[in-house]
C-alpha cells in the first residue's frame, strides 16, 4: 500500500523491449536505499516489483496489461517519473490509501497558473466519473490530490509550489497522459450497495409484498 506522497522525481535510464513486456531501469537514490529483490516501488502510481538493484538504480518488468492500461508505455529514456516506496506499518498516512493499481488514464487538458498555485484540468474516463467527487481524493501519476471540481468528463486539481517542483505534474503539459487511480473506498461502497440491492430484489418476502401490493 502507498499513500500518494511522492518521495522523489526519478528518471528512466534504459528501456528493454521483451516482446510482450518491457524492462525499465530507473534511477532513484532515495527509493533504492535499502531496496532488495522483490520489493515494491510505485512508478507514476503503478506498483512495480524490483527485479535487480545496483547503486542508485533498479530494474522492473512491466507486463503488456500494465503497458496497455497505464501511461508507462509512453515512457522513454530520460523520462522523469514519480517514485514512492510502500508505506511502513506504524507511520503517518500523509495522503490517502493508494494501491498502485491504475484504473485508467487521463490527459492534461489545461493549466492555469497563479502566484501561489496552479489549477490543472484533466480528462476523466466515463467509467471512472462516478467515483470522483468534489473535495474527494484521487491519485494522479501516483500523487495523492484533492479534487477541486468534478465534471462529467473532467476534474480539476490545485497544485502548490512543492508539488510542482517535486513531481511530474510540474513539467507535464496539455496533451500529456497521466495515470489515474480513484479512491478504492468508493469502489467498495458501490460493490456492497449493489450486492445489497440484489439481495433485496431476490428476497421472497419482498417479492410477496410486491404481489400483495398489486
From TrEMBL:
<keyword id="KW-0686">Riboflavin biosynthesis</keyword>
<dbReference type="InterPro" id="IPR017938">
    <property type="entry name" value="Riboflavin_synthase-like_b-brl"/>
</dbReference>
<feature type="domain" description="Lumazine-binding">
    <location>
        <begin position="97"/>
        <end position="193"/>
    </location>
</feature>
<feature type="repeat" description="Lumazine-binding">
    <location>
        <begin position="1"/>
        <end position="96"/>
    </location>
</feature>
<comment type="function">
    <text>Catalyzes the dismutation of two molecules of 6,7-dimethyl-8-ribityllumazine, resulting in the formation of riboflavin and 5-amino-6-(D-ribitylamino)uracil.</text>
</comment>
<feature type="domain" description="Lumazine-binding">
    <location>
        <begin position="1"/>
        <end position="96"/>
    </location>
</feature>
<feature type="repeat" description="Lumazine-binding">
    <location>
        <begin position="97"/>
        <end position="193"/>
    </location>
</feature>
<comment type="subunit">
    <text>Homotrimer.</text>
</comment>
<keyword id="KW-0677">Repeat</keyword>
<dbReference type="InterPro" id="IPR023366">
    <property type="entry name" value="ATP_synth_asu-like_sf"/>
</dbReference>
<dbReference type="GO" id="GO:0004746">
    <property type="term" value="F:riboflavin synthase activity"/>
</dbReference>
<dbReference type="Pfam" id="PF00677">
    <property type="entry name" value="Lum_binding"/>
</dbReference>
<dbReference type="InterPro" id="IPR026017">
    <property type="entry name" value="Lumazine-bd_dom"/>
</dbReference>
<dbReference type="GO" id="GO:0009231">
    <property type="term" value="P:riboflavin biosynthetic process"/>
</dbReference>
<comment type="pathway">
    <text>Cofactor biosynthesis; riboflavin biosynthesis; riboflavin from 2-hydroxy-3-oxobutyl phosphate and 5-amino-6-(D-ribitylamino)uracil: step 2/2.</text>
</comment>
<keyword id="KW-0808">Transferase</keyword>
<dbReference type="InterPro" id="IPR001783">
    <property type="entry name" value="Lumazine-bd"/>
</dbReference>
<protein>
    <recommendedName>
        <fullName>Riboflavin synthase</fullName>
        <ecNumber>2.5.1.9</ecNumber>
    </recommendedName>
</protein>
